[in-house]
Amino acid sequence: MTKPFSTSATPYRIENPEEFAKNILRVFEEGGRAMGELLERPDAKITPFSAASEANEATKTLTEIARLWMADPAKLVEAQGALVRSYIDLWNASIRRALGETVEPIVEPPPSDNRFKDPEWSTNPYFDFWKQAYLLTTQWAEDVLEQTEGLDEASRQKAEFYLRMLSSALSPSNFPLTNPEVVRETFATNAQNLVQGMEHLARDMERSGDLLKISQTDTEAFEVGKNLATTPGKVVFQNDIFQLIQYSPTTDEVREVPLLVVPPWINKYYILDLTPAKSFLKFAVDQGFTVFVVSWVNPDHRLAHKTFEDYMLEGILTAADAVKRETGVEKCNVTGYCVGGTLLGATLAYCAARGEEPFRAVTFLTTQLDFTKAGDLLLFTNDDQLAALEKMMGERGFLDGSRMANVFNLMRPRDLIWPYIVNNYLLGKKPFPFDLLYWNQDSTRMAAANHNFYLREFYNENKLAKGEMSLAGVKLDLKKVKLPVFEVATKEDHIAPARSVFIGSKLLGGPVEFVLAGSGHIAGVVNPPDKMKYQYWTAPKAAADTLDEWIGMAKDHPGSWWPHWVEWLTKYAGDWVAPREPGEKLGVIEDAPGSYVKAKP
């Protein structure tokens, strides 16, 4: 038995040195092979939204910050001196602690930082040193950036984003020799965890598309139509770009006015129909609404020519007409989620300009109509990036879903990338089954023409908000949209920031019921009432010019916003009528959830 690895609290012993040595050799061998394969993948090449391209952008951005500091040597020396002094303080504290003295930590992570939850980050001087050194360094870097002069707002936002990305990557929790849980597992299993981790990496590379898709959940635990997207219904209409699902009634009577739901085309619709307990669509059906949902196609090169205009005309407006023909009701209520809501907003402006109105009332869920405060996603839509993206999509006819998924993961690397690298590749464990993360990994492609238009016209040029957008020969003006609107933003949204959603809601010409929900882009929306997990806030929107003013007068409510929405929507839902079975007029094509949502990349 070998000598224990030194710590003050936990002995680390190699129980089987021969097996340990063999496994370490296997790790080096398999790791070298995996690294070689990674370097041959698109991940390692400067292509749109790849890890290599973002690392390149990070290097250029942070080099510019360094250049600005080097222009003022005295200020640079002062900043460097502050960092060195903090390291000296930490070293002295570590020496005193090693001598048996009780020493208060110089710096501690916030309680919400799950990277350092393992007790040994505090009880073991070795790991505690690495933890505090990392925290001191990242705090110093953030202070340096805050004190950097000569940066405009966009450049500062870009630098803050890439600094977060870099600091997340350099956490000692991400390295096998400085993570106590990984060290323990390595000694306990004679490094079998690292061998298993290399096997997990190889498997992830095999099943990945353009970019490495790190497993975030046990994908074998779920199947669409079996334990996800199980609300009973029928596909009653379809064309090239969507299937229309009508759900079976569950109440003795239903509201006269049906509800059409438009999800984002960059994800699959069943985020709104996960398990029965989390299903927004099932909840709406159970409240007595006749619910229809658009299930967008997973497009390939054959649909490369489908434009944003097509998604409006052949998508939302065709779906609304199908709902009208199926139910015999002239106008339906409509809900748009995320980019589905952005498409819906443009559609409403198009209809208003033409003097047409196929809808009675509108719900927007985390929807941006103005993109001036669109958050970190703006960093991925400059002219150079869009030109490269358009070239790639021009060659293929679509954008691989892994690229947009990579963007969303890069926006929250501490939560969506590194925990899974540690769990899968260092600890050698399979990820836990989690329905939301299964949906997150079940990505869909984007038709080239449609997605090019969306990124350039909305994110890059913000034409809808400026009143400069035209669709099908019609100039769009959101002020002409007079319909009653229920608008939901979420407090911690990194995709459609609440400030951005609020600004966009003020562009509409009709009454807006603005609601701020707790949590983020997904959990703030998928928040069923029985969980009582997050609260929401309400206030008269017209009384506030900014979101900060609105928050200052808002009243908080415990639990889900869903019942509040039902109360609002009921005012526009008509009388009670006999329940409608799916496909009574249009016929039935197949059972829900349909075939479009099951299509894989």
UniProtKB/TrEMBL annotation:
Gene Ontology BP terms:
poly-hydroxybutyrate biosynthetic process
Q: Which Gene3D superfamilies match?
A: alpha/beta hydrolase
Q: Record's superkingdom?
A: Bacteria
Keyword set includes Transferase: yes
MF term (GO), any: acyltransferase activity
Q: Where's it mainly located?
A: cytoplasm
Q: Which Pfam families match?
A: Abhydrolase_1, PhaC_N
The segment(s) forming the Poly-beta-hydroxybutyrate polymerase N-terminal domain are: 113-284
State its location(s).
Cytoplasm
Q: Which GO terms describe its cellular component?
A: cytoplasm
Alphabetized NCBIfam families for the sequence: PHA_synth_I (TIGR01838)
Q: PANTHER family attached here?
A: POLY(3-HYDROXYALKANOATE) POLYMERASE SUBUNIT PHAC, POLY-3-HYDROXYBUTYRATE SYNTHASE
User: What protein name does the entry list?
Assistant: Poly(3-hydroxyalkanoate) polymerase
**What is the species of this protein?**
Hyphomicrobium nitrativorans NL23
User: Which taxonomic lineage does the organism of this UniProt entry have?
Assistant: Bacteria, Pseudomonadati, Pseudomonadota, Alphaproteobacteria, Hyphomicrobiales
